[in-house]
Amino acid sequence: MTGTEHLVDFASVDGLFHQLGLGLDAAECHGTLCGLLCASDTVKGSAWVNQVLSGRLDLPAEAPPLQVGSHGEEHALLLILYKETVGQLDDPEYGFSLLLPDDDLPLAQRAESLSRWCQGFLAGLGLGGLQDQSKLPGDSSEVMRDFVEISRLGHGDGDDSNEDEAAFAEIVEYVRMAVLLVYEELRPLRTARPDGAPVH
Question: Which residues constitute the domain of residue 61?
Fold first, then answer.
């Protein structure tokens, strides 16, 4: 099981960020969103999209109104990604997938994106109020330690061997299933905490 393909692909989001000159990374952005959704039930789609279009990922609860032009199409594209991600996390068939570059790109580029995705996820948990990740329930603390290691992942330039491809695919699948585990294990914390209350 490798998850469901996103309606909004990595290239579209990454291209949008470049077009708008936002300086954001599509994989990190999606990782941050997933971390926020795991940590908090208060992340609203429009507020998150406005925050992303303002070039920031660090104020998830409330976003200032946009000051530059009309971003109707861009807003719609990111809102689809938000809604799709929420639906995938709640999918009983485990259809969640990471927003990463296509497999036809060099492995080094895909490994860098996975690293950024995990960095974003860890940041999203903190932004969502889970500030002491060592006190997370169940296996979530161990997952976070693994994500820290994966966030440092690198892959040298050169031929992408079948062994390297297989190893990378295994890591991606581990991250995918680990996110679903964390999402489920943190469900009681999301429902029990007052809005925005941090877990120390």
Answer: 10-192
